[in-house]
Amino acid sequence: MKKISVLGAGSWGTALSILLSENGHDVTVWSIDPEEVLMINNYREQRDKLPGVIVPSTIVFTTDLELACREAEMIICAVPSTFMRTTMKKASPYIKKGTIVVDVAKGIEDETFKTMTEVIGEECPQARTGILSGPSHAEEVGRKIPTTIVAGSKDKEVAHIIQDVFMNDYFRVYSSPDVIGIELGGSLKNVIALAAGMVDGLGFGDNSKAALMTRGIAEISRLVIAMGGHIETVSGLSGIGDLIVTCTSKHSRNRNAGFLMGQGKTYQEAMDEVKMVVEGVYSAKAALELGRKYNVSLPIVEEVNAVLFEGANVRESAIRLFMRDRTIESENLSWDD
């Protein structure tokens, strides 16, 4: 049994805390919101974001960050990516050297274009970092629906510890050393999911969405490889697996926000209606800048940015994608002359 703290009491943090408690660990969950903590302590249910899933009485919920972190052997970072740096800066003085800190948020930091494990490493250099990512909606994990995910770390021992802590009969965990590949897959698929939602909102069909998803994974692959990741990761759970579930599921906040934008709403109106953090909106700018930095073509990402921040018409953006210059599907294939 390990003493584990989860930072963030939203749907994902709550679902993972339940899983960890059922696996026999001593779990504490921190939230910055006193009303959220009071609600869960009173009803043993995250009524706003994970309704219908009962939270065991053994899990402690608190607003005291020091209490949550001081004795923890492992810390799970489940706060939205936009709040990762500020949260870890505040938590760092209470985190002991050698503590394993696991990122479960999916995003790239705006302005710095850092991944979440990079942010954690900068703010908590004394920690050992890892990541948990893949096709895993909290609504399904909370209901014990079979789910498969990947634990990543540059430190083999850390990856295996994360794997052992989380794995059970409905939550299968693989391990991987390709942290950058896992993080980029988890972040960029949210941007592609916004586009997939826009396609649905426009009333296009399955053909259009399949094309969007396939070319989306091609864009993710190009950037992952340019930044030192591996194509095997893009082909795996944290790449194409996460892309499929996020582009197609009713649970996907990114797809749902994109759908509303396809019907004519602004991204702010869409986020207000979804009522949850839409990570793809925050990752879109960073993805575009990373593409420019590494000289990688990301046409879908470019059009998503145009819709989000430049007032571009969704339908016209879709047409521009279809009317791009003719090109070969794979740059690695050629005819024998």
Describe the secondary-structure layout.
Elements (H helix, E strand, L loop, with lengths): L2 E5 L3 H12 L3 E5 L3 H10 L1 E2 L3 E5 L5 E3 L2 H5 L4 E4 L6 H8 L8 E4 L12 H8 L4 E6 L4 H4 L5 E6 L3 H11 L4 E6 L2 H23 L4 H21 L4 H4 L2 H12 L4 H10 L4 H8 L4 H15 L5 H11 L4 H9 L15
Parallel strand pairs: 1-2, 1-6, 2-5, 6-7, 7-8, 9-10
Antiparallel strand pairs: 3-4, 8-9
Helix pairs in contact: 4-5, 8-9, 8-11, 8-12, 8-14, 12-13, 14-15, 15-16
Structural class: alpha/beta
Mean pLDDT: 95
Helix percent band? 40-55%
What count of helical segments does DSSP give? 16
Please explain how this structure is put together.
The chain contains 16 helices and ten strands. α8 (179-201) packs parallel to α11 (237-248), α8 (179-201) packs parallel to α12 and α15 (299-309) runs antiparallel to α16. Helices cover 51% and strands 14% of the residues. α5 (116-123) links the parallel β7 and β8 (128-133). The longest helix is centred in the middle third of the chain and has 23 residues, at 179-201. It starts with a strand and ends in a 15-residue tail after the last helix. The protein is α/β, with parallel strands linked by helices and 337 residues long. The strands form two sheets. An eight-stranded mixed sheet has the order 5-2-1-6-7-8-9-10, sandwiched between helices.
